[in-house]
Amino acid sequence: MIPVSTFKGRKVAVFGLGGSGLATAQALVAGGAEVVAWDDGEAGRAKAEAAGIAVRDLRAEDWSGFAALVLAPGVPLTHPKPNWTVELAKAANVEIIGDIELFCRERRAHMPGSAFVAITGTNGKSTTTALIAHLMKVGGRDVQMGGNIGTAILSLEPPKTGRVHVVECSSYQIDLAPGLDPAVGVHLNITPDHLDRHGTIENYAAIKERLIAGVQPGGTAVVGVDDDFSAAMADRAEQRGQHVIRISVKRPLADGIWLDGDTLVVSEGAAEVFRLSLKGIGSLRGTHNAQNAAAALASAHALGLAYEVIAVGMGKFPGLAHRMEQVGTRGKVLFVNDSKATNADAAERALASFEHVFWIAGGVPKAGGINPLKPFFPRVRKAYLIGQAAADFAVTLGDQVPYEMSVTLDQAVATAARDAAAAGVEHPVVLLSPACASFDQYPNFEVRGNAFRDLVTALPEKP
Hints:
The protein has a 9-stranded mixed sheet, sandwiched between helices. The chain has a 6-stranded mixed sheet with strand order 14-15-20-16-18-19, sandwiched between helices. The chain contains 15 helices and 21 strands.
């Protein structure tokens, strides 16, 4: 835990008592703050009370006595409308912040020179966060990884000399962190997302840009420049005098890191400094993962790792569970768990990464179904349709892709494994990339992915 001493002796309101909210309340108490916590859900209140946190309805509190309102990131700050606690805080002129901001204040107060890399972007931030943490561990560093990737930031160990904090930041978290000041700030890309919470894509992009704008003096901003919003961010950062490393998977860069076939190229002053091949690294297949790898390469080098050490670490990266996770092989057949692909945009990245796909798809469909994936249908040897979406997906596939109505995942895995083994192609892949939510048959995508992994493990060595 990171005790939050910067609010010692002051009264703080905490709203939202899920994992990060409860960790925040505990960290504030540990640092000497007087905490009053609340959650609209009874379960959250019960957990906080069991942990010894003072739980009282914030509607009945005197807000003039609060030094801050700390919001959980899932609580609306502006759109579709501010949460009621936000309105009360604003009326009393109480600052509204989140747990990332508390971490930043603790770091500034006690260990401002400690290594801190913050990562954002619409797509790829979890993989990039995990990859940077992995590279730093390979380089012998003491690594703490958290934030939006899963572990609440205040549950990590405190900043200290020789320790690096690698933190994934969502737009919600950045919106609540006005003092975000990493040593290395990474922004990958912008596509329309979370507009229900930010109103417009312009506002969403502006919030993301704060992570780059806040990089501390002498630090490094790593920016993907393959979309217009992000390219403009890099230009503005450079105009402010910040050290910027641009990354691209679409075009060569005279200064930056770019993709040449399956090789990352580091260029300085139009001269090549280093080349790192991604060929054969299964956990980093696809152009989207090349962007993640480029950002990690830039970040790890900025944090002091030699390119040669980074190259060794890249080759050992296991990948993230449920994100194009290679769960096993049977004969020539590779089995890939991409259960995290809960919409067509996410499934596209997996389909684009393989040539001979035996595709398991379906579940609770999202708007548009799999219509956007039609350009990738030639890669699909056969589809195995499960869940609520099966009938609609069959209509979309039509006569372009052979398919069967497998209904359940266990049937789909068994048949796909048999068909892939008999296909007579060099690199057959059984791919779970559902392009759907899981809730018709599984509580979440993790449970669905774990079920797929278990089914593959149970297959005979030669289907």
